[in-house]
User: Which sequence fits this backbone?
């Protein structure tokens, strides 16, 4: 036990003395939260819309004003010229053309139906889908409004036999950022713990100090505990710090129990630290370990459901996610922070990670040898 | 038991193979208590491999080997308690101070804090280096680093100390001082096992073994070797053997 | 020239000897394309929903059938009690709950109106939005059949047309993005690290005193990476084209030339980084944080630049990948020619010149 204390003391001194490292530990949460959360957003706003209103009637103008009034849209130009609109779309200066044909109002009044064409710049399929959804909502809202107005209220009810009511739970303002912040926090603790652990031991290898330690009577477990504990502490500190920043800057709700969150993260970190240790044991140089770590991180993060829900992934991807530790924390941290899920709700994930931690640490310890 | 008291290291038919390559080919030798045993050879002759096996860093392919009376196959942990080791690669932490390095290595050998303070003070005093106790290793010249690394290797008062080319890359004066430290250590009944490729250093050893391509070609005191080969110095002995 | 060839051969041998790194260099684009192609999608397919049907009559059953047969949704749970709603969301598997009010059919025929409530777990706001619009679409479709007197009702029909990407395929985004990222990684990161390593090891000096001209040394060092990167680019394009049906409407020669231009630009950036980094580790961290993350996040690869706050939009103008992605999309998807993209091409050229200029200046300073 005392031996471990000596190792801990040394590791902490080394981390705290390394300016770059300290800077990284303090600055990384800021940079990640400020840049990543703001950059990684599908919050649709300021959709550049080009209006081609060939009707110029009261009704068509009213419809256009609905788009103008919406905070999601930004009117680029109004004209009769479809060609010009197309050109703007081609040059990426507009994302949507709303085309109202002539006789729009006339047709609507007399034939009871009239078309509005939406031309959507769809190279980004996800954004296009959302633009369509938003626009359709505006138009159908307007549709109901004029139905009521034109019939002096008689038509409203009768024509809405099925009244659909929505309620958005946990996030009524549909704020995408509070969804991203917990995801970014997961990446933060993962990067810190995985990279630092993996680099640390390879560095001792490159420096030759590991040999000096290997000839001492130190026990395997003492060395490993001494090496891993500092990074565990740092990663948990990062989580707390990041949560604090998220709360201050983005108003991220903390509905659930923080004790449960930290307990779960602790188990998660054991898995990650085991991985880091394993990678560093099998690697020869810092460059190599960096590449391998980077590769796994990229794959695991993309598959973890940080941007897109894991539920909409194909079955094989879901199976891969069973061995993807990041996917577990990604899911659980959002459940706890945003919805207030309790320990019983995450029981399955907790046990899975616990088993995983035993495996990953076991593998690393087994592969780590003092003798070559 | 008798053998143990006389010999600190006994090696019989030690073989180490890396795939097809034989790094150590049936080595047999004994090292006596308090002896300075020189292990000589060109680069790649197999010196470091043999030393790593004796330190428990590497397992031999075959052979009967005892270090400090312990079996290298089964009792490596016990061996590690009895030995000190200074590797060819530099092994102090550059970003820690002198004192912190002493404390760390003392700590993992299980010394008590008081003992660590005592030994650190004693060893630094002897080096005349107490004033630099709080300097970072990265700010210290190479010659001093080597002497510090040696002090750390004997900090826990081992019975045998292994030195792997301890003087490579340092100036002649420092090498001289370094050998004085080795003598002083040996005078306290500590066995010193040292590899080197400086032939003039071989003259300082009690006995030397000369390796070539994985085999021991000669093993005796420097004086006897010079007589056998009828030459004036160890350098010529080496040239004769390697030819 | 012969000496130069020998030197280039040595560089190739270096690269091919490090199997693990090589494997990752080629594995990475493939893995990334596959993940983006199959895994990272926002499409709704068999989303798990719960239904709380308090009426259980012919109409609610019919609506339920219609929703479930759409292929977008799958019934994961039937809720029988109000209290189960919260619990269901807490478990996290189900993101939407449809609630039919009691006596649904009766109300519909007597009062001519009945209420469907859609509860959404909106922690993921976009997902909630999509689920909502899909469900609403199905229900409103159904309600057309039971409209009572729709004679006078004015109906504005929306006719959406998805330009350039009819089926809203994700491949249009990720093929250009992956190319920008991988090419940057292979060229800038690898060159900067390998040149810095020679510096660190001291082997650079040996090369500098050799009769090779310094321009030959640099060219020799980067040559393998240019070919590796180009090969990588072609692999990505081929994957996109054959596996994911990514079209190539524009001129393929133009496409490949622009790719080469981007590679050369990334290269000069890599050389520049190596002139300012003292150690491999610094080169690695600079490449990682100054190249990879911005290339992934601020280039419009995954997230539209227009949605970002202005400081980030401003920052994205200095990210080379941003222009490359625009170029690729224009050529491949829209089929536009140089006339539409001369500005982006010029910017990349300019960046190349600037980086080379800066590197030469740094080299000179060091040699003096």
Assistant:
């Amino acid at each position: 036990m005392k031996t471990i204390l000596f190792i801990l003391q040394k590791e902490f001194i080394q981390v705290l003395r390394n300016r770059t490292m300290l800077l990284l530990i303090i600055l990384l949460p800021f940079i990640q939260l400020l840049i990543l959360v703001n950059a990684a957003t599908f919050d649709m706003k300021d959709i550049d819309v080009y209006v081609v209103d060939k009707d110029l009637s009261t009704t068509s103008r009213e419809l256009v004003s609905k788009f103008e009034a919406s905070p999601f849209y930004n009117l680029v130009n109004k004209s009769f010229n479809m060609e010009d609109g197309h050109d703007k779309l081609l040059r990426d200066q507009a994302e949507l053309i709303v085309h109202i044909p002539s006789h729009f109002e006339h047709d609507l009044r007399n034939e009871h139906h009239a078309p509005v064409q939406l031309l959507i710049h769809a190279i980004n399929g996800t954004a296009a889908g959302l633009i369509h959804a938003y626009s359709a909502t505006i138009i159908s809202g307007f549709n109901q409004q004029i139905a009521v107005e034109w019939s002096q209220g008689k038509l409203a009810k009768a024509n809405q036999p099925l009244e659909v009511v929505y309620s958005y739970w946990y996030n009524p303002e549909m704020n995408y950022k509070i969804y991203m912040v917990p995801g970014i926090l997961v990446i933060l603790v993962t990067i810190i713990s995985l990279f630092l652990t993996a680099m640390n031991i390879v560095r001792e290898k490159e420096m030759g100090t590991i040999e000096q330690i290997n000839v001492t009577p130190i026990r395997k477990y003492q060395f490993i505990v001494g090496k891993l504990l500092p990074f565990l502490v740092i990663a948990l500190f990062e989580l707390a710090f990041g949560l604090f920043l998220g709360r201050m800057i983005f108003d991220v709700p903390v509905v659930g129990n923080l004790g449960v969150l930290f307990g779960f993260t602790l188990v998660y970190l054991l898995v990650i630290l085991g991985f880091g240790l394993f990678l560093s044991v099998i690697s020869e140089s810092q460059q190599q370990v960096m590449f391998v770590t980077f590769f796994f991180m990229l794959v695991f993060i993309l598959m973890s459901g940080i941007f897109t829900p894991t539920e909409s992934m194909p079955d094989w991807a879901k199976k891969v996610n069973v061995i993807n530790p990041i996917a577990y924390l990604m899911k659980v941290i959002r459940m706890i922070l945003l919805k207030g899920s309790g320990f019983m709700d995450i029981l399955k994930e907790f046990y899975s990670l616990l088993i995983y931690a035993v495996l990953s640490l076991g593998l690393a310890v087994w592969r780590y040898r003092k003798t070559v | 038991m008798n053998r143990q008291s006389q010999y600190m290291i006994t090696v019989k038919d030690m073989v180490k193979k890396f795939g097809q390559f034989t790094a150590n080919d049936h080595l047999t030798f004994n090292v006596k208590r308090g002896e300075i045993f020189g292990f000589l050879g060109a680069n790649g002759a197999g010196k470091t491999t043999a030393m790593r096996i004796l330190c428990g860093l590497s397992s031999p392919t075959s052979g009967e080997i005892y270090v400090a009376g312990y079996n290298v196959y089964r009792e490596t942990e016990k061996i590690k308690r009895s030995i000190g080791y200074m590797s060819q690669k530099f092994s102090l932490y550059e970003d820690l101070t002198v004192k912190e390095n002493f404390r760390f290595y003392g700590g993992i050998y299980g010394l008590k804090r008081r003992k660590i303070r005592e030994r650190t003070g004693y060893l630094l005093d002897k080096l005349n280096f107490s004033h630099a106790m709080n300097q970072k290793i990265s700010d210290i010249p190479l010659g001093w680093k080597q002497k510090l690394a040696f002090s750390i290797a004997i900090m826990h008062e081992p019975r045998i100390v292994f030195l792997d080319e301890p003087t490579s890359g340092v100036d002649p004066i420092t090498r001289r001082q370094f050998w004085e430290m080795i003598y002083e250590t040996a005078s306290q009944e500590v066995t010193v096992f040292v590899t080197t490729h400086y032939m003039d250093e071989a003259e300082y050893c009690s006995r030397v073994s000369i390796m070539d391509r994985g085999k021991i070609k000669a093993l005796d005191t420097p004086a006897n070797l010079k007589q056998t080969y009828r030459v004036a110095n160890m350098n010529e002995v080496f040239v004769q053997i390697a030819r | 020239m012969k000496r130069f060839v020998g030197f280039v051969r040595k560089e190739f041998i270096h690269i091919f000897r490090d199997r693990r790194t090589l494997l990752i260099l080629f594995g990475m684009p493939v893995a990334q394309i596959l993940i983006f192609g199959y895994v990272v999608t926002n499409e709704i397919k068999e989303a798990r929903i719960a239904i709380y049907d308090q009426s259980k009559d012919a109409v609610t059953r019919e609506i339920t059938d219609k929703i479930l047969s759409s292929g977008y949704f799958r019934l994961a749970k039937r809720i029988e009690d109000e209290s189960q709603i919260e619990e269901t969301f807490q478990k996290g598997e189900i993101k939407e709950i449809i609630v039919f009010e009691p006596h649904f059919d009766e109300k519909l025929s007597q009062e001519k109106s009945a209420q469907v409530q859609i509860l959404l777990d909106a922690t993921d706001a976009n997902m909630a939005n999509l689920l909502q619009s899909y469900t609403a679409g199905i229900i409103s479709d159904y309600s057309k059949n039971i409209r009572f007197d729709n004679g006078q009702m004015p109906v504005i029909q929306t006719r959406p047309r998805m330009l350039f990407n009819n089926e809203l395929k994700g491949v249009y985004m990720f093929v250009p993005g992956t190319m920008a990222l991988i090419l940057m990684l292979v060229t800038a990161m690898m060159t900067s690290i390998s040149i810095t390593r020679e510096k660190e090891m001291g082997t650079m000096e040996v090369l500098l005193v050799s009769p090779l001209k310094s321009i030959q040394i640099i060219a020799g060092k980067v040559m393998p990476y240019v070919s590796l990167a180009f090969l990588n680019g072609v692999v990505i394009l081929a994957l996109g084209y054959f596996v994911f049906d990514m079209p190539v409407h524009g001129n393929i020669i133009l496409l490949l030339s622009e790719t080469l231009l981007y590679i050369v630009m990334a290269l000069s950036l890599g050389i520049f980084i190596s002139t300012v980094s003292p150690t491999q580790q610094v080169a690695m961290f600079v490449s990682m944080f100054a190249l990879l993350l911005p290339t992934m996040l601020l280039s419009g690869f995954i997230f539209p630049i227009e949605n970002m706050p202005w400081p980030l939009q401003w920052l994205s103008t200095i990210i080379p990948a941003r222009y490359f992605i625009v170029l690729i999309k224009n050529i491949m998807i829209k089929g536009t020619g140089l006339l539409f993209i001369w500005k982006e091409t010029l910017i990349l050229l300019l960046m190349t010149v600037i980086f080379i200029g800066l590197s030469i200046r740094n080299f000179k300073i060091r040699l003096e």
User: Anything to note?
Assistant: The mean pLDDT of chain C is 81. Chain C is about 65% helix and 10% strand. The first strand of chain C starts at residue 47 and ends at 53. Chain C has two domains: 2-40+171-367, 47-145.
